[in-house]
Fold:
Amino acid sequence: MFYHFLYPSVSEFPFFNLFRYITFRTGAAVLTSLILSFYLGPKLIRWLKSRQKHGQPIREDGPESHLLTKKGTPTMGGFLILLVLTISTLLWGNFETPVLYFVLFVTLGFGALGAIDDYMKLTERSSKGMSGKVKLLGQLFISTLAAYCIMEWLPSEIATSLTLPFFKNVLIELGWFFVPFAVFVMVGASNAVNLTDGLDGLAIVPIIVVGGCFLLISYLVGHSVFANYLQIHYVAGSGEIAVFCGALVGAGLGFLWYNAPPAMVFMGDTGSLALGGALGAISVITKHELVLAITGGLFVMETVSVVVQVLYFKATGRRVFLMAPIHHHFEKKGWAEQTIVIRFWIITVILGLIGLSTLKLR
Structure:
């Protein structure tokens, strides 16, 4: 909004030339999201508490301690993230390129599904919520539409190709299989983040780290000089995603203020489904889908632990882990919640650095 209203007047007000730079608008998006989170957060939490007398329903088959420590904590805090993220992106983004529309469509679409799921859990006083099949169908519809639009928008020479980290000139042509692949990335990332969101602060910091990594990646991919120097595939217009990622980082930091142990509010499926889907869409647009699997390796680990647990139990009747996802396994082993959370944060930072190294090691 600021770009479209103020930059055209740059000849009269030279200061407005700042709005031309993605770096300036990205930094402004971070600060805007952060300030809005601090201002709106307490108000939203009070409102959620007034509407949710008993807080988020706690899984009866989860760790026993959660029935005591988590009881009464309101959920749907992801609404705060989505609100300030959307406002900040609208204020500082340049919507002459459609990439921001693509990412916001996936983010808000998945967020709406998550909000319905959270609302059903609250009204039915159950941890079940929306049917898994219905939720998956909704995700498939949204991501399929987004994947097709992204494919049509991307440069034709790389639109349906898969790039490989560490290799500068290797492209795997997927053809029309690109659409189901992109759908898999978005839906998989969404549900992976959702599985990770089980302890106070556990999911939001990895989201911030991965969002920060893709802030840099999207800026470099959308800058022809840097893309050529690093020998990564240039995607014109994708640099605007850096503004969205900046808003995401600021919103995530603001939410962490209230979600840090002991959490005042949970993000719920409203936040986890939306932000996971957003990261998946960003990776597809920037042609760094496999780098998402590296930087978001914690989300992958959590998902794999669930898949392994289910398949092994069906085959043998026994369990590999004491409980899945894997963060609950360590809880069962006696690790303190804060210990698990901080160690998983450290793992995420390491994976983020490895993911960023792929930009240069080619």
Q: What stands out?
A: The two ends are 38 Å apart (CA to CA). The first strand starts at residue 161 and ends at 163.
